[in-house]
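Checked the freezer inventory, then went back to the computational side. Two predictions to log before the end of the day. The first one is the construct we discussed on Monday; recording sequence and tokens without edits.
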Amino acid sequence: MVPTKRGKTPFVKGFAHNTDIEVGMRLNKKTNRLEFFAIKESQAAEFERLKRLDAMFVRQNLLVFPMEVDPPQKEMSRFLAKMAFEALFERFCNTVGEKAAYKIISGEHYDRVREWARYGHNFDEWPYHYRAYFPEETLMEHPDTGEWVQFGFGCDLLLTSIPETYFVFSYYGHEFVINLGGPAIKGYQQWLSENNYVSFLVEKKGSFVQSVTENGEEKHFLVPLIVLPDA
């Protein structure tokens, strides 16, 4: 993993419902599962108590992560750059090994985005692309249990034909994209135009969002695309 300059991994901030406990959410790279933790050490014991009560079905430990679709541009850009570095490092680790991965991401090619992520003073701005691609309440089928659960977040690296490498991040239907090569998104806008403005994390992964109405209520589901065989 690639920590921040202070040695910390970026996380999403929320809180435990009906409490003042601040909660962080991040992806555990070892288990590939989301983990939740008390941000303040003084609240850690109480948060663990709430988790035990939830496990015993005494009290549901509902965690709330507010949607912020208009975050401060510079801070969000740097946060995306940090996550992009995480994804890039993991991709190289899986292909060439950890030692070679460190050497690659430490190379001159990534100097600009690395400095932007760490310090944010080498450019006035580093734009990113944002759009609300599907409703926040969209459900997906859990890969392990088969239950319908809310689609949380996903990310991947997109290599365009230019070529440029983009980091695509989706958070409850809110899609953010940043260029790892430099402060420009024209190449991604071109990719969208050439691909009918579909999502790299939805249609390009073999899915689409289907909306249905049940008892007057509209519901949204992420379902697989059905590809018919050639006649």
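The second is the one RB wanted added to the comparison set:
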Amino acid sequence: MKVVQSTESLSVVPQLRKATFVLLMACLPVCGVAYAATSAASLSQQAHQLLIENKGNEARAMLRQAADVNPEDPSVVFERAMLDDAFGEHGKARAGYDQVQMGPLATAAAVPSAVNLVSLGRFTQARKAFAQLATSQDAYTAGYSQLWQLWLTARTQKGQAAALGAKLAKAAVQVKAATPQQRALAELYAGKGSVEAVFSAIDSMGLVDPLQRRDAYAEAAFFAGGYQQYVRRDYPAAIRLYQQELSHPGASIERPLLKQALARLPAASR
């Protein structure tokens, strides 16, 4: 029986952020002891694959089959939370993340759980969650979480734009980017980069899988759009980024937040 790598490493490699269950094969580590995958977990894996292929309704149907086997299986609870988030039902998703946070999938759920807190507007709790994730030994998770810290600062800062810019510039130089995309986003928030450089960085990464590439574009649109919206206050530019990304099908965990951000922008800017 093969034991998979730690759930932390599963949840943070760029191309695997949305596919935690796809690589959960025969068993999972539970407090140092491996347990065999259940029938419910196998069905949950299939549901997750459908989700990342942007087949949300089919994913929900598959997950109902998993729940019929065992509604309390951690994989079922976790997958239901991610599906609820994808469908914009963030309050329901929160209950699922809270349920798995002390179990075998706690580490795998940490990033989507933190993003869910942002979706709910619980910024103080989200800031604490991402501060902890920023200390991860996995370089991608650490860099991704530091970008979230920049976004949260931009989203919640009160006062003069100059003060916000200075605060972000100081924080951005501390970002330990794991990819060219993360580096370009950090430079953007530092006031030294550009939106064009962010998307050029993605192109330089040579992502072959279309799902990986779409995920990278969604992440870039969210963070770059947030910079335009909350730092530059260039609302038309933010709208263009959000609308361009939302015109493509996708299952990124940032996608519901793109919709939220777009809805907050002044109608006169559209």
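For RB: The radius of gyration is 18 Å. The chain is about 65% helix and 5% strand. Let me know if you want it refolded.
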